[in-house]
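== Item description ==
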Amino acid sequence: MMKISLIFLLCFLSLNMLGQSFKANAIAGISTSQVSSDNLGGFNKFGLKLGASVFHKVNNGTRAEYAMYYIDKGSRDSKNFFKIDLSYIESSWSLQKSSKGIIYEAGLLFAVLIDGATYDRNGKFDTQNSEFSKYDIGATIGAGIKLKPKVFMFWEISNTIPLFPIQEHPAGISVGLNKGKYNSIFSFSLRYLLSDEL
């Protein structure tokens, strides 16, 4: 918990030092996720998404945004108590385009694993079966709307890039681009503008 607090403190301090050409958002939301190739279906693992972002207007309808946040990922099957529980500090770089009241967003993600484990009805799996990559590299698309002058609502879909699985298949077996397991996330968040619009 101390690591997460320190990361958010450093992120907040950096936002205050970026100057007048950049503006900042606070981000709070929920994530629903699944892990591809775990033989389960559905976005049944719920978690949090908390952090902050800074953005800069490129032109009248386009802006670039950098975000850093804590996010829960994984998968869950309540019938057999199987669960993959993953927690990350994630950063994203995205471009946003506004058109007819909708903000469209696309970008890349880089996440560092804080904690990861696999569970079944007997509890946590042995360490070897819970070994996950330290990093999750992905892509995201999303859309948002302005609710109030300083409040925005966003829906985002993200996925691990196939070349960088979060966990390899047993014995390193891979078929084409399917090299292991991948995070798939649908998230909903509110972004609060911490200063006046540019």
Notes: The domain at 26-193 is CATH 2.40.160.20 (Porin).
